[in-house]
Design a protein that fits this description.
Layout lengths: L4 E4 L9 E5 L8 E2 L5 E6 L12 E6 L10 E2 L9 H12 L23 H23 L11 H32 L6 H16 L3 H19 L6 H15 L1
Parallel strand pairs: 3-6
Antiparallel strand pairs: 1-2, 4-5
Helix pairs in contact: 2-3, 2-4, 3-4, 4-5, 5-6
Length: 249
């Protein structure tokens, strides 16, 4: 699968956006760069449709190119990854050492030491994301009317269940933020950025718009620092901007 492309779901948490890989013959000639001038989007059918026989893909330019310029894409989701993580993923998955401008920079934009445990943080974040999605889905479903014979405390207990669960997730994410800082993990690393995305989602579920806005803005400030080197997926950023827009309504 050396010429395959990563199938990415940008609605999933950073670090866990890969759904698999596929080969698209017409797109198999693009070279990789961690600072690409284009990106490949895959259209994944969510509803069985006899008229859709397979995945489809398109390449979109991120900047203007001149005739003869090389068009590059990123083979992997790379939002907020360190140089070591990107190069290891590319070596293990595609069998080459990346020598793009980001990977050969004298001062890497994001670097990790061997003592930093980002994978444990990621696993907690994946779990928090699933818990929040479950509560978000449950909250959006129509509520069954309570019986008039129910006691007052019974009428409100179910309504408060989702809030208790979300508050627990918020506490867990804040705990991971302390761990990120204590380990000295860079603030522009994926797990730090993801913590603000999770908190923005959690506070939005609670309709605490002030705190949701605060963490959306923290997310975007960190992304601004990363995108100075081009190291953030544009679609992932676009999705978060849409979420931010709902908070500002």
């Amino acid at each position: 699968l050396g010429c395959s492309h990563n199938i990415t779901d940008f609605s999933r948490p950073l670090g866990n956006q890969s759904l698999g890989r596929a080969i698209f013959l017409e797109h198999s000639f693009y070279n990789h760069s961690c600072v690409p001038n284009a990106y490949l989007s895959c259209n994944v059918p969510t509803i069985p449709d006899e008229s859709v026989s397979s995945l489809t893909a398109e390449v979109h330019l991120l900047e203007s190119v001149k005739e003869g310029d090389e068009i590059t894409i990123s083979y992997i989701p790379m939002s907020g990854l360190s140089n070591q993580e990107r190069r290891k993923t590319l070596q293990e998955g595609y069998g080459f050492d990346c020598n793009c401008s980001a990977c050969t920079a004298s001062e890497p934009s994001i670097s990790l030491s061997e003592t930093m445990d980002v994978q444990s943080v990621r696993e907690i974040q994946y779990s928090c994301n699933e818990r929040l999605l479950s509560q978000k889905k449950g909250k959006s479903q129509p509520q069954v009317e309570h019986s008039l014979h129910q006691a007052p405390e019974e009428k409100t207990s179910n309504d408060n269940d989702y809030a208790d669960e979300v508050e627990q997730v918020i506490s867990l994410v804040i705990m991971t933020q302390h761990g990120i800082r204590n380990q000295g993990i860079p603030e522009t690393h994926e797990v730090s950025i993801e913590s603000h995305r999770l908190l923005a989602m959690a506070y939005s579920i609670l309709e605490d718009w002030a705190h949701a806005k605060e963490h959306h803005e923290n997310f975007l400030k960190l992304v601004d620092k990363v995108t100075e080197q081009g190291l953030f997926d544009p679609v992932a950023l676009g999705i978060q901007l849409l979420e931010y827009a709902t908070v500002l309504k």
